[in-house]
């Protein structure tokens, strides 16, 4: 279905969730139901505790999602039956999962009609709510353990960024771990990334997002590899005076390729090292305020200062000094 119509379905989704319907979102659909809602499983679809909870459900309604491979372990995630899909495109019917029924419809209109029918009804109970809360807490803790010190960076940004602030993520290790699922989502279009797997779009997307939302602070999350494809856009950031704090996660190469080679190729490492500039000095040469961080203890102070400053700025995180963040791509049944 048209993605915009899914985004506009938030009120109807909340009505269904208030009635006790459990909701889990794709990473790109986060915030359609706020993370804080008691019925939200957020985007923890690949977490064992959440999978165990999903297996107890009686029915699956897929609203506007294509159930992508990287969010379903290459389509091996068990989704309860019967399954019903809502999509405006007839060609999407049972494309990635076999459906018992596909409703070719506008997602916003159909969910609104469904929400009207459930007014006054309550499903679920305190026991289910408790199980859901425990599943989400276990999933979040597992992700925090995986992220290590970088969970502190997530928390520092969440504390310093205004409630209406926007996170724009490149395809990068940090974006795929804490950025995609750990960072808060109060509403739709507040945690944005490219649906394709190509790196390099983070900075241009962050600048565009800031220009379209001049009263809101934007954090652009990029890696050194992705930024290297669009270094010249630092000049655009400065010239447009975009209200962006660019967060550069510098691990000196292609971190995901290191993870893949460790996991699938016995640790043989090839062609993943990068020669990159001193990003802080480069930013300063462009006339941008810049910070460099090489200790996790400094995350809070630096992010608080950077995000309090209007206009463009750059924070470079030197991951070599802080520690590696291991990631071998989305959970898969098999890869190679």
Automatic annotation (TrEMBL):
Gene Ontology biological process terms from the UniProt entry: isoleucine biosynthetic process; L-valine biosynthetic process
Entry keyword annotation includes DNA-binding: no
MF (Gene Ontology): acetolactate synthase activity; flavin adenine dinucleotide binding; magnesium ion binding; thiamine pyrophosphate binding
This protein's UniProt keywords: Thiamine pyrophosphate
The Thiamine pyrophosphate enzyme TPP-binding domain, residue ranges: 177-317
Thiamine pyrophosphate enzyme central domain sequence ranges: 10-114
Cofactors demanded by this protein: thiamine diphosphate
TM region positions: none
Keyword Transferase: no
Name assigned to this protein: COG0028: Thiamine pyrophosphate-requiring enzymes
Organism: Klebsiella pneumoniae IS43
